[in-house]
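Shall we go through a protein fold together, starting from nothing but its sequence? Please make up or recall a protein chain and show it to me in full. Go ahead whenever you are ready, and we will take it from there.
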Amino acid sequence: MLTALSSRRGEFLRNAFVLSLLIAPGAFAQAPVPSFDWTMPDRFGKETLPDGRLAYHYDAAYVSPPGWLVSLDGCVSKAAVGDSITSFTWDIQGTTTNRPPSGCHFTYTFPALGTYPVKLTVATQRGHRKSLTKDVIVKDLLIVSIGDSYASSVTFVSVACSGAGIRDGLLGRQTVIVHPDAVPAASDLFAYLSGPDATARVVYRGVGDQVQELSLRPGATWQQVDLTHIAGAPPAGSNVVGYVSSDGTARVVYKGIDFHVHELYLQPAAHWVHADLTMLAGAPPAAGVPFGFAEADNTAHVVYRGTDFHIHELYLLPGAHWADADLTLLGGAPPAAGDPSAYVTTDRIPRVLYRGVLGGVHELRREGHWIDADLTNIASGAPPAAGRPFGYVTADKIARVLYRGVAGGVHELRLEGTWDRARALPGTFGRRS
């Protein structure tokens, strides 16, 4: 009995040995898994100059290049356990390029913007091959700066190429850029973000003087609404400006055809409400476009140029009513020739900017009381302003003011201890200081 069992066991081992010789090594190994992504280099907005100014290029060949460089990355492709990738083969526009294992990175210059099918074939040491074809979208998109109402930081991305590593963009993948049913604009557009979901809102005055809004929530499509109609507000007589107060309320301000400052604000129940701020605060009529901003103490603020050429502030304290303050009178400032803007620096000091009657860029800042300063006079060599100045704070906590000079150049005033001299940004026309 033992002899018979031993004989059968020996026969089984011999058969298993013969079977193992007949099966080629790796016969049951899985095929590789090819995968790749693509990126395009940033083309604008690099701070490469020694003085920190943005280095822009404006020649036609740079703005509209003859080709678009794309970096393809197939390094995330995987081989089965016990196997290894031996080559990457890229098929693009009828051209086949073989690369060694170390060549999972590949660059290719496409002749124009558009969508191109790209095929990656991965081969392994054990003779397995598998291909993957994906559409590479070559796009050149403008990405604007986004900051908050307190100006704690502003990030300038400028112009970047999208469709690659940032193919969904900041606001999600867009199928259309212009809303097909949007009312044509009769003024400039103003964009801002609101709410915990960072809803994008674009407001403007329509051709019928209505206040129009285009809004985009993440994962949704653009929606258009006539704010003056749903809130029962009067027509607009100026550009429209939107902002978010520190309690998270979306607010839109404009000068009406009655020269009053009007506000449309969004209640928590998603219902727009109208308020006549001029009437509520007993303020003088407006001569220009109002500008809204917020402070961290839960207050809302609107500044505007009155028909008396003074800069007025309408402010709303928590639990109180709208009130008016004559900043020109309080700060001993000269009359205004242009509309104001405002921002808050990281030290929580509100700063209101405007162009004076002599062309100087004036700043009214509140440090217990309102103080006026002629920034163009403080910053030696700064030319007079011809347009509305705007201020912001960069990530390095430096306050900066931009304005258009009388010769057309774009000038910068920078606060580093004291206000630095104006600089004409590269690529702008007009005389430089």
